[in-house]
Specification:
The structure is a homodimer.
Chain A: H1 31-41, H2 48-51, E1 57-59, E2 65-73, E3 79-80, E4 83-84, H3 85-98, E5 103-114, H4 119-136, E6 139-148, E7 156-166, H5 191-200, H6 217-226, H7 240-252, H8 267-271
Parallel strand pairs in A: 5-6
Antiparallel strand pairs in A: 2-7, 3-4, 5-7
Chain lengths: ~270, ~270
C-alpha cells in the first residue's frame, strides 16, 4: 500500500478532462468511464484482483462455509455526523456477513451516480469506503459504476455485497434462541438514525449526535471466543432493536421480554 | 419446487393490505416490508437458504476457485422487446461470472424501488427474474429491498451479485491473448441496445428487434470442452464489441484486426 492515497483526504485526483462533476458519459463504458475508474476508484482500492479489471474477481477462499450478503444504501444526506454513505455501505455489509460468525474477506461495490454529482464529494465518499474497508480487513475486488440522468437518483446509491468464511463449529441463527437466553446489546441504540435525521430534517441540537457506524468483525471474533454457546447475532438497521427482536422471536418461536430501563440510549439521542 | 408459483405468471399475489403500488413503508423494515417480502419475493425464489431470512446466506461451495461479480441495472424502460430489467439483471451477472469459466451458482438481489411503482409491474419483473435464474441454474439466496421517495429513482434499479466456482485448470483472462489468436462472436451484435433504444426513443420499426438477453453458462461449458486452449471470454454490454476488443488489446498488449464484413449484424438492427 506504499502507493496508497493520502488517508487524510488532503490530496484529490485532478478533475477528469476538465469536468468537476459526474457526466453521463462516465457511465457509458467508453473512454470517460475508464478515466473515472483509473483516476478515482482504482487508487482507493488498489489490489491485484481489482486491478485486473476483468468483469469478475477470481480467488481462493480458506476452508469453511461461505457467508454471502448484500445491501443497497440510499441514505440522504450522503454525509452526516460520524460518517457518510461510503463507510456505512462497507460496514453494513461487513457486519451482515460477520453476524453469521464469518470472517468477512471480500466486497463488491456497485455505484449508481447521479449526473452532476460533484467529483470532490465522490472522492470523499470513496476515501471513506477505503478507510472502512482497511479497518474491517476486507478487500474490494470487483465493482460496477452506472450514471443516471439528473433527477433519477438521490445523488448516489451504493450497493455492497460481501463474502466471508464461517469457521467450522460455528452455527449462528435467528432460529436457535431458547427459553432462558439473555439478549446482549453492544452499545447505545438509535444514534445512527438520529444523526442522519438531525441533518435531514434540519434539526439542530446543542450536542451533536454522531452515527456509530463501525465494522464489528473483531467484536464478533472476540464474542465467539468468549461465549462459544452464542445463539445468534444481528446488526440492527432499519426497524432497529424492536424489529430485530421480533424477527428473532418469530424465527425461534419464543417470547422476548425487554426491560425498558435496561436498553441503553444516550441522553441526547433520547431527547432528540 | 412443487409449491412454486405458476411459471407463466398467470397468477398474481393479492395486493398488499389494499395497496397496488409500492409505498415508502414497504422499505422501512417493519410490517409492510415483511408483507412485501412474504407475498411478492419469497414465493418467486423459494429455497432453503433464502427462506431463513437471515441477513446473510451460508452455504458450502464445491472445490475450486471462486468467481465473484456485481452489476447494477438501471435500464429505461423497465420492460422492452425480448426482456425486462429482471432477466437482464440475472443474465448479466450470471454471464459476468461465467466469462471466467466458472459455473454460476448463487445470486444476491438488491432492489431499489420507487414509491408508486405498480406492484403488478414488480411482480412481472420478479417473475422474469425467477424464470431467468431457473434457466441459468442459479439460486437467489440473499437480498435487500429499499424504497426511495417518488422521483428519486427511475422506477426501479436492480443490483445482482453472483458467485460461481472455476474448475481446476481453467484460467481465462483478458491479459492472455497472443498474436495469431482468432476472435469468435457467439451471435449478432447490438440487438439488445437497439431493442431498448427503440422503445425509449419512441421509434417504431416494421420488424421488432428483440433483446438477445440470455444466460451463457451452458455455452461456456461447451466452449471449454471443445476448445481447452481458450484465452478469454467476455459478455459485451455497455460499449459493445469495440470497447471489449479495446480492453482485450490493452490488457494483452496486442493489436486486434476486425474485418468489417465479418461482424454479424441483423439487417433490421443495422437499419435502425
Amino acid at each position: 500500500m506504499s502507493d496508497a492515497p493520502d488517508f487524510d483526504g488532503l490530496s484529490c485526483p485532478a478533475p477528469l478532462a476538465g469536468h468537476d462533476t459526474v457526466q453521463l458519459a462516465h457511465g457509458a463504458g467508453g473512454r470517460l468511464s475508464a478515466e473515472l475508474i483509473d483516476a478515482h476508484v482504482l487508487p482507493r482500492f488498489r489490489n491485484d484482483l481489482l486491478a485486473k479489471l476483468e468483469d469478475q474477481a477470481v480467488f481462493t477462499l480458506p476452508p469453511g462455509r461461505v457467508a454471502f450478503s448484500t445491501d443497497t444504501f440510499v441514505v440522504t444526506p450522503l454525509e452526516f455526523p460520524g460518517g457518510d454513505i461510503g463507510d456505512l455501505a462497507v460496514n453494513g455489509t461487513v457486519n451482515d456477513v460477520a453476524m453469521s460468525g464469518a470472517r468477512p474477506l471480500y466486497l463488491s461495490v456497485g455505484l449508481v451516480l447521479e449526473e452532476g454529482l460533484p467529483l470532490a464529494l465522490l472522492d470523499r465518499i470513496l476515501g471513506s469506503m477505503e478507510r472502512a474497508a482497511h479497518a474491517a480487513g476486507v478487500s474490494v475486488v470487483t465493482g460496477d459504476t452506472k450514471v443516471v440522468d439528473r433527477g433519477s437518483c438521490d445523488g448516489m446509491f451504493v450497493n455492497t455485497s460481501g463474502i466471508g468464511v464461517v469457521p467450522d463449529g460455528v452455527a449462528l441463527s435467528a432460529a436457535s434462541l431458547r427459553p432462558g437466553d439473555a439478549v446482549l446489546l453492544s452499545g447505545t441504540i438509535a444514534d445512527h438514525g438520529m444523526a442522519v435525521m438531525s441533518v435531514r430534517e434540519g434539526l439542530s441540537f446543542r450536542s451533536t449526535i454522531q452515527s456509530d457506524t463501525a465494522a464489528l468483525g473483531g467484536l464478533v471474533a472476540d464474542l465467539l471466543a468468549a461465549a462459544p454457546g452464542l445463539r445468534a447475532l444481528r446488526d440492527p438497521t432499519r426497524g432497529g432493536l424492536a424489529t430485530t427482536l421480533n424477527e428473532f422471536a418469530h424465527a425461534s418461536r419464543v417470547g422476548i421480554r425487554v426491560e425498558d430501563g435496561a436498553v441503553p440510549v444516550r441522553d441526547d439521542t433520547a431527547a432528540a
